[in-house]
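Sorry to interrupt, but I need a hand with the structure work. Please put the record directly below this note.
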Amino acid sequence: MVSKWSSQVQKEVVAAAKKLRTLDKKSYTELVNKAVKRYSKAKGITKKELAVLSRDLKTAWNKVKRASIKKVSLKKSTKRTIKKAR
């Protein structure tokens, strides 16, 4: 049961992060806090489980940052030239 709701929280954080134009550590932490707060009212989830999930998501910031940097650099480097039809 824990893995189901924890994966939902992770998906929500990732979806919200994709909507932001710039992603920094502060905004990522706020997204994690909001998602965890929403799930704190759910039945069957203890505060300890939420604290562990929150800590894990916040420590994953470096991985998220590296992934977003790679994505941005790939987008910038893929320029196409379109030839006009004669």
Remarks:
- The chain has four helices and no strands.
- The CA atoms of residues 26 and 78 lie 29 Å apart.
